[in-house]
Design a protein that fits this description.
Protein name: Lipoprotein
Organism: Hymenobacter tibetensis
CATH architecture: Sandwich
Distance between the termini: 61 Å
Shape: globular
Radius of gyration: 20 Å
CATH class: Mainly Beta
Length: 142
């Protein structure tokens, strides 16, 4: 009985260590960062951490299988806070953006980086029902 209790305890501790390893994995430069609106994460860039917050997602793209007069656009507003507390905001766009871009230059800890919007998923539904949208972003060093 003591052996069984010991084995169960060891097994439980190993399971907890695996969870902490997965939680400790940190996003770095060139990783795809996926965030819903009003959510934040931390990315390791230039030997320090940068906090990403998607402050808003606006999606007026034409739903699949419909014909629209305008293709529409998906806009994602992102706030970045570097290690020294400097805040930068970027508004990125996909689709028929009319002068807006899918990428922006941001300076983090005095080092220039590219912030690129890769996707906004899921796209709009023809039925009018929508689920929480996720923005996929990538941060690369220039």
């Amino acid at each position: 009985m003591k052996t069984l209790l010991f084995l169960l305890t060891v097994w439980g501790l190993l399971g907890l260590m695996q969870c902490s390893k997965k939680d400790a994995e940190q996003l770095t430069l060139n990783d795809t960062i996926k965030l819903e609106s009003k959510k934040s994460t931390t990315v390791k860039a230039a030997d320090s951490n940068v906090q990403f917050t998607v402050s808003g997602i606006s999606d007026s793209r034409c739903p699949a299988n419909l014909q629209c007069i305008w293709a529409g656009e998906a806009t994602v507003d992102v706030e970045l806070r570097d290690a020294i507390g400097a805040v930068q905001n970027a508004s990125l766009c996909l689709g028929d953006c009319r002068g807006k871009n899918d990428s922006a230059t941001v300076v983090l800890n005095t080092i220039p980086h590219w912030l690129t919007l890769l996707a906004v998923e899921p796209g709009p539904a023809a039925t009018g029902t929508s689920s929480a949208q996720t923005a996929s972003l990538r941060l690369t060093r220039q």
